[in-house]
Amino acid sequence: MPRDVEPRLLRAFAAVADELHFSRAAARLFVAQQALSRDVRRLERELGADLFVRTTRQVALTSEGERLLPYARRVLAAQDELLVAAGRAGPLLVDLNSPGLACGRVLDRARELAPDHELMARYESGLTRAAGEIAAGRLDASFGRYAGLEPSLRDRLDHQPVRYEPMAVVLPEDHRLAGHARVELAELAGETVYAGAGNPRTLEWTDLARRLFEGRGIEIAPPAPLAVGADEFRRIMAKTRTPVLAVVDFPAMPGTVLRPLVEPIPLSPVSLVWRRGHKHPGIDALRLAARQLAQEEGWLETPAGSWIPGMDGRIMMCPD
Question: Which GO terms describe its cellular component (predicted)?
Answer without folding.
Answer: protein-DNA complex
